[in-house]
């Protein structure tokens, strides 16, 4: 059964083997994380990404029914700043986003609630962040236990705010 997953290129977290691609990604840069946009390409927000994921997985018919070309789904990791759930109004917006993701045909949504400044501090003071888990792609890892290159890639991911 077809699906869209890309965990293997993370094993060893070494992007030095990747070549440049026509979309402007430089040689040695990480590939996209499963069905996610490549780092820096997520410029129109989480709803736009969700719409793209739904279309890539099959989209909808004119009658509004979802078509699923990938029955095993696709791994989609997205990072939000914890500030998005800091008040009741934002919580409702976040719930609406999650409902929309499913209604749009999304399958495996993996959410990081991370602040880039906190991650940079964890790089400087790992002893203070021994229990900080991050979603890498198809797996979680302790942030301070992964290599610097992968840490920097996680920091570079867009952290959506409300």
From TrEMBL:
Domain Glycine radical stretches: 33-162
Keyword annotations of the record: Organic radical
Q: Name one GO cellular component term.
A: cytosol
Task: Please provide an example of a Pfam family that matches this protein in its UniProt record.
Answer: Gly_radical
User: What Gene Ontology terms describe what this protein does at the molecular function level?
Assistant: catalytic activity
Q: Known PANTHER family for this protein? A: DEHYDRATASE YBIW-RELATED, FORMATE ACETYLTRANSFERASE 3-RELATED
Q: What is this protein called?
A: Glycine radical domain-containing protein
Q: Which organism is it from?
A: marine sediment metagenome
């Amino acid at each position: 059964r077809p699906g869209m997953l890309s965990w293997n290129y993370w094993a060893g977290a070494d992007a030095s083997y990747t070549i440049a691609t026509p979309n402007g990604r430089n040689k040695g840069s990480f590939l996209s994380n499963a069905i996610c946009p490549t780092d820096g390409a997520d410029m129109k927000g989480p709803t736009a990404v969700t719409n793209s994921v739904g279309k890539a997985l099959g989209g909808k018919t004119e009658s509004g029914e979802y078509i699923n070309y990938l029955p095993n789904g696709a791994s989609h990791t997205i990072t939000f700043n914890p500030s998005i759930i800091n008040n009741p109004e934002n919580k409702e917006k976040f719930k609406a986003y999650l409902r929309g993701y499913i209604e749009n045909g999304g399958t495996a949504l993996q959410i990081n609630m991370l602040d880039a400044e906190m991650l940079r501090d964890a790089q400087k003071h790992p002893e203070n962040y021994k229990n900080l888990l991050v979603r890498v792609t198809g797996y979680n890892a302790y942030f301070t236990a992964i290599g610097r290159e992968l840490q920097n890639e996680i920091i570079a991911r867009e952290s959506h705010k409300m």
